[in-house]
Amino acid sequence: MPETRPYTSGANQSEVRAHNERLMLSVLHQDGAMPGSEMARRTGLSSQTVSVILRKLEQDGLILRGESQKGRVGKPSVPMGINPEGLFSYGIKIGRRSTDLMLIDFSGGIRAERRLRYRYPQPDEVFGFIETSLRDIGSDLTADQRDRICGIGVATPFDLWRWHAQAGAPKTSLQAWKELCPVTEIARFSPLRCFVINDATAACRAEHMFGASRAWRDSIYFFIASFAGGGVVLNNSVYEGSMGNAGALGPLPTRRPDGSDGRLLDTASIRELERRLVEVNIDPIVLWTQPQDWSRLEEHVAQWLEDTAVALARAALATCAVIDFQAVVIDGAMPPSLRARLVDRVRAELPTLDARGLIRPVVAEGEIGAHASALGAAAKPLIAQYLMDTHAGFAPAS
């Protein structure tokens, strides 16, 4: 049983200062550059406290001073904003079909990318690729940029070794992942601090930090990739849960098109589209080829999209019976035009369902797409060490 933790914990002076610094960086990261007076208004901190912290953050290279804004009563105001060069972070997505690695800056800009494709993941191949990629990308950075890399985030399905059947792999092929710890493996060749996060939760973090879902305080997030997954945003922060598995939406019960019982991951996943293509002798690799173009598959995609939309609408409404989410955000590893069609179809389906006792949520389109899990993994070290996380409180990052 997980350890029971108190609702709140005290904070000494150094922790309070760190809290206020995180708060101000988070406001700048979410809302953009602003002068100190506006920062004081939004945070509730005194103007003197804001001034002192802004000066320290600027000295540390985490924020930049903008051009003076004149033409107003009083002294000209100087906006302060996030310095993209202030921090860097690696994000790695270890998936069932590929491993993606990227380096991002403090603003979420992707500075470098690498990808490894496979039929199913093998540890030696995956971690060999990661080691080589980190070395190659690092060699192209300046000494100051390397010193500003704050960590590595790893996004992966929990219990990857259980998914051999779904990945089309021999039963024994993924057993090596059962006892394997990504943090330990990466520590063999990198001194950077490493954080592990569920792949769908990582995608949710990317959307919340860099996409459109930050417009809502509480939202449920669906990500359609090889399998369906998702994440939960509560009180403007991604909620991972005590086991790190909150928002594991794939196992939600649903009905297959033939009326039989199934799970969301069986009906609303790209793996299901792969299966349908194989049945008509079409190589499903076309679904993962970059840049994505599914236009020649319209005959097969149309029915899959319809079935997926129906399943998503039912799942979305069911989640609102637990928490009255303001919005349902839908993203996926698919062409943006298909994602837009899927969202439109879910919007049309939702009003046809019995919602007695519920408030129907807004249905919104995600903005990140196929990069979401790797980008969210890269965001994890930034959030854990420099930004606010409502559900983490003052607890040290794990």
Task: Report on the architecture of this protein.
Pfam families: HTH_24, ROK. One of its GO terms (molecular function) is N-acylmannosamine kinase activity. This is MarR family transcriptional regulator. This protein is an alpha/beta fold and 398 residues long. The protein has 3 domains: 13-82, Orthogonal Bundle (Arc Repressor Mutant, subunit A), CATH 1.10.10; 88-203 and 374-386, Nucleotidyltransferase, domain 5; 212-367, Nucleotidyltransferase, domain 5 (2-Layer Sandwich), CATH 3.30.420. It contains 13 helices and 14 strands. The strands form 4 sheets. It has a 5-stranded mixed sheet with strand order 5-4-3-6-7, with helices on both faces. A 5-stranded mixed sheet has the order 10-9-8-13-14, sandwiched between helices. A hairpin with a 5-residue loop joins β11 (253-255) and β12 (261-263). α8 (199-210) packs across α13 (372-386). The chain starts with 12 loop residues before the first helix and ends in a 12-residue tail after the last helix.
